Amino acid sequence: MSANAQRTLIEVRWHARAGQGAKTAANILAQAALREGKYAQSFPEFGPERRGAPMQAFNRLSDQPFYMHSSITEPDIVIVVDPHLMDTIPVTEGLKPNGWIIINTPLPPEEAQERWELKPYRVATVDASGIARETLRQDIPNVPLLGAFARVTGLISLETLQKDTAQRLEKRYRDRPQVIEANLKALERGYNEVKWVEAKTAELVARETARIEAKGWRELPIGGIIPEPGTSAMYRTGSWRLERPIFDPQKCVQCLMCWLVCPDAAIILENGKVVGIDYDHCKGCGLCSLQCPPKAKALTMVLEAELEEVKASR
Amino acid sequence: MPSVKELAQKPLPLVSGHRACAGCPLPIAARWVMASSDKPVVACVATGCLEVTTTIFPYTTWNVPYIHVAFENAAAVASGVEAALRALKKRGRYDGDVNVIAFAGDGGTYDIGLQALSGALERGHKFVFVCLDNQAYMNTGIQRSGATPRYAHTTTSPAGDVLAGKPQGRKNIMEIVAAHGIPYAAQASPSHWKDFLLKAEKAFKANGPAFLNVLIACNLGWGFEPIETLEISRLAVETCFWPLYEIENGVYRITYKPRHKLPIEEFLKRQRRFAHLFRPENRHLIEAIQAEIDAQWEDLLRKEAMTAKKEEAKAAAPPS
Fold this sequence. Notes:
The structure holds two protein chains of two kinds.
Chain A: H1 3-8, E1 10-17, H2 22-35, E2 39-45, E3 54-62, E4 77-80, E5 100-104, H3 109-115, E6 122-126, H4 128-135, H5 142-153, H6 158-170, H7 177-193, E7 195-197, H8 201-209, E8 243-247, H9 257-261, E9 267-270, E10 273-277, H10 287-291, E11 299-303, H11 304-313
Parallel strand pairs in A: 1-4, 4-5, 5-6
Antiparallel strand pairs in A: 1-3, 2-3, 6-7, 8-11, 9-10
Helix pairs in contact in A: 2-6, 4-5, 4-7, 5-7, 6-7
Chain B: H1 4-9, H2 26-35, E1 41-46, H3 49-54, E2 66-69, H4 74-90, E3 99-105, H5 107-111, H6 114-123, E4 128-133, H7 173-178, E5 184-188, H8 193-205, E6 210-215, H9 219-223, H10 229-238, E7 244-248, E8 251-256, H11 265-268, H12 283-316
Parallel strand pairs in B: 1-2, 1-3, 3-4, 4-6, 5-6
Antiparallel strand pairs in B: 5-7, 7-8
Helix pairs in contact in B: 4-6
């Protein structure tokens, strides 16, 4: 492959939660690229976990044919569909210096670059969830994000994306043209409302000159051995949560039904009594609140999003 | 049966941090089974949701000795563990006492693991086989299995213009297992926890192989919200879609009879896998499902009455 051909290959990595539509968005992007005469790939990568768990989707876009099929470890562009992932997943891992990171957040790009330490990268932000809620009446941020992608990267035109989105939805929403209309609106708003900043040059230079000190093979620990039982407790599944149970110790009658049915062992017991919820592991399924005796009602579910609003207003 | 307060004193056999979907009853069921054991346990787990969600390297959710085995051979490996422990005991090299459990999904029980299960039951190993039945291959993307009920939509029996979901009914695994003449087989649901814990306790006390068929309502594959898990499981029982019963030494006993048997619609309408049945052209299929369930329930009631009589006659007869 010539150096020129290598340069035209653009690799995109999407970070989302399973169920947020990143796979579909990557698919639309690849279709649109094909329509513009490019070579394109799109594929998702799920863990064994499902709904709510972090997942990735990938795109390769090029003017030349290419033969790679591996997952992408050094992307040119990273798209973050769920801003909560910024704090839990190393989304910039392998991202090329001066690469784009497009985040679904109402924060201005300067603030995002500062807050998540994204100085070596070009940062674009768009309130895709807000746009989706207004146009689609649902939190499906992938469509506005595609619009933002088209604007900041210039790799694909808005018209092609519009055509492709309309075509994709036509079959399913034949009798509901307003759904297609709303999606096109969301796409356009994403395109128009995205804001971005350049990478900070000093940081960029520092990043490019930094060398990774690799360990020799003798210094590495032996792989494949799990020396202790029950180690998964170190892995935090609390970020999957959309709703959280709030525990009121005054109302609790200590029947332990919540403890019995919690799939994630996230009900904290002390001396055989319920004392609280382990939010590092609670996935917010709500089984505990349903099992709590109606007379006691010591557990109530609250939307995480609303919780943040409550916190912010204080 | 230990009380919930007593259970809460025991160390957790399965800890937190596993990657099962929010609201999935798999970890609950596995925890309840293991907590019901009066002895330490060894778990042999076939490939399936329980395995992949609890053993992602470098972590393990298990707090008990655990062996991951292939889809086919959970029962064969459990047999091996049981036989090895017996052999070691005989030679005086081991003096502990443990219960051996095999966990498998419906794929690892009804379909791929059936041969190994049959062999282990026939050889009469003392172990408990737990089928965690979510009624399709959920871990690989909701493909139909021998446990998928009639007219359910799966990715390999898609409901559309040609098919109305899976055309075939599901295997009666309880009858298949009971036909081996094992001392104990029971069907349980996490929605009825007392019944569940009693059955698990009985399974461990059985003098030979025991089988538990546990309903695992899958919010992903069946299509409902995570919070509805236990309600859907309860509806499965209340509509007699999933009767709670046990077969103890050939004697059938229905452990829970719904006072008012609910129409099957109540169960079907809450799940997207059956959504196509509510289109006008498919309504008659719901009636067909109702007829099938009624027949199976009648059959079960008959078997209970019949074997109870046999049992009475045996008790009345003088010992030979």
